[in-house]
Amino acid sequence: MSIPADLRYTESHEWIRTEADGTLTIGITDHAQGALGDIVFLDLPAAGRSVKAEEEVAVIESVKAASDIYAPVAGEIVEANTAAVDAPESINTDPYGAWLFKLRPANAADLAGLLDAAAYGKIVDAA
Amino acid sequence: MAKQTPLYPIHVAAGARIVDFAGWDMPIHYGSQLEEHRLVRERAGMFDVSHMLAVDITGAGAQAFLEHLLANDVAKLTETGRALYSCMLGPDGGVIDDLIVYFFAPDDYRVVVNAGTADKDLAWMREVARGLPGGGNVTLTARRDLALIAVQGPQAQAAVHAALPGSAAATAGLRYFQAARMGDIMIGFTGYTGEAGYELIFPAAQAEAIWRALAAQGVAPVGLGARDTLRLEAGMNLYGQDMDETVSPLESGLAWTVDFSRARPFIGRVALEATPPTRQLAGLLLEGRGVLRSHMSVFTALGEGETTSGSFAPSLNASIAFARLPAGVVVGDRVEVDVRGKRLPARIVKLPFVRRGKVLV
Fold first, then answer.
1. Which fold has domain A8-108?
2. A61 touches chain B (CB under 8 A)
3. Looking at the predicted structure, is the pLDDT value of residue B42 above 90?
């Protein structure tokens, strides 16, 4: 189970990477993809959409079930990963490479509320 | 505490993800459900289905008992080993379970029932027998001492022949829905995938050796996840999802299994004849992107219905479902399905979706 130290996390199993320009790249964790099983369909948000923190912004459908993906912080959707839409299985094989969407945070200070790798690891261990 | 089959330690050692299924710890997949599905369509896979229960029905009254108990007519079985798929109905015509019955002699049958309903089924069978003169002159023996492995796929039968010495000769000339007995191993030409293959029933102590012999022939382990997508593509019902005690087999796509041809007073007949079906089970193919699941509302020109099973279908790279819809809808009709709050277009298609590796819709 991989939990890269340089990422931030949510309790709902998204990972967040802060890019040099301040935007956030968001995906789901290795633990999440393992629990979901083979991923077969993605419904991702359109660029330009404003979202609130913890708002449902995307859906991942696996062979097992549909799962909602939440915005980790408030902001505006910058881009969705169309390559992942065309190859949903890439999320299983490369969960930290196959990102879902990019978000420009409304308030950079909101990032302080996200989990670090150690704190997320404890949540996974307890699951 | 969940029950475990004799193969449970092998599943765990193989890295299976274990889930509770009807009170049993069963493998849902061994890594990738999609890959396991593909292996069964293209090569061969094996499923541990030892949670299902074989019940031997023997005695002078066995045939008469089953003619009364089952909606399909065991009198059609005359050749040794021949099998029949049937529903077992309650007096109200609801489906207590679906099962396969194997005929070996008029006083020697075996039925295989679902895991989740096994205790209820056995209790019902005993109650029915008790209600017959002389207890029906029938003995019901629950065979919890047996294990079951289904081997399915285009290469499955050759793999079994190679893995079990003598099985090629024992099964020579076997027809679909017929079983052979080789010593204490029953080899049935049956399955739940739409592919060729066998279902093996044998003493539990042999389970590990047979599993390993099949693996040595290149047969891959397949979990219950792929079993579900394979059976859905094959147009085969799942008890508890597509039918149960609250619905008639005539509204569950199972009219072909109810045999009214003789004046045979089987349990549930009176209720079925008194209640013409107003709904029917149909296949749905989602035309857009998304995934159908069970219990989604379906809107047709004749009224509303509901999906009973739905999934992504790996062989079609699209989503499919069974839905219970108003009677009168026909293949080709356009419908809409409420998928997570959005109405998506779907089409009624003829079942099955896939048979013997070929997509039919």
1. OB fold (Dihydrolipoamide Acetyltransferase, E2P) (2.40.50)
2. yes
3. yes
